[in-house]
Amino acid sequence: MRLVTFTVADPNVPRLGLRIGERVLDLATAAKTAGLGDVPASMRALLAAGPAAMARVRELSNSVQNDAARSAAAWLDAASVTWLPPIPDADKFLCVGKNYRTHLEELKRTNLIKEIPNEPTAFVKLNSCLIGHDAKVARPEGIVRLDYEPELVFVIGRRALGVKKAEAFSYVAGVTILNDLTDRDSQEREVASGSRFWTGKNIPGFGPLGPELITMDEIADPYDLWMTCAVNGEQRMRVNTRDQIWKLPDILEHFSRHIPIEPGDMFSTGAPGGVAVGKANAAELFLKPGDVVECSIEGIATLRTTIIEPEPKKA
Q: Structure pTM?
């Protein structure tokens, strides 16, 4: 299934839906139409409600597709919705860094890494920086070296504490895509100072996420996926997830040792090699207003973002 969070007329009322082809099924409306009772109103609530709730969503999807006339009011053209991050309110969104061998080589060449960790490390991605698919992101004044980082994100489906590697995937609800937009100047300063907050990755808008949560039954092998990034239609990178150093079982075992990981929490698994800062002509490749960035799990999903000028400051 392709689960989405979106708005239509009222931007302050997020809705839960299913993307099927070029249409979105509004689950709340569909449930009323089909007489199947209420469904959870948010992605976090759906995941927290457990397998039975997810099974009801599958049943609802099958029911309305088999009775198109009765469910007409529940269908929306995908082009008519405003996409939100699939999970805009995770309790914890941890981004694992230094996790692709190809990217480590770039970081070493550009002095953006002091040492290679011997266990998974992560920083927190703030909910306030997250935006959805097809959104516009303003490049703030003074930021010139704005870089792209397409990342595979695992969404946790049930409470995980003290998880062992062999069990890890039984806790995963699905995957989505993060474009971990990065101000490289801020990153350089923070590396030099020893900071681990990564201000340059938590600027509002610097967290395009989506377009959907893809349930794991649609992912044959999460460690044989091609992560790609194109800018204005030109492919900038294409790296297979097998290049990751720390796989999801390592990550979940490590971070769930003492801290409970809750339904809807997310792990982003690092940037592949091929970012602008690692290339000889980096100055030409950093993102600028007008650029359209497409981060993809090749053949499965694409997250699109447009970079724009910031709004003029008010006098």
A: 0.95
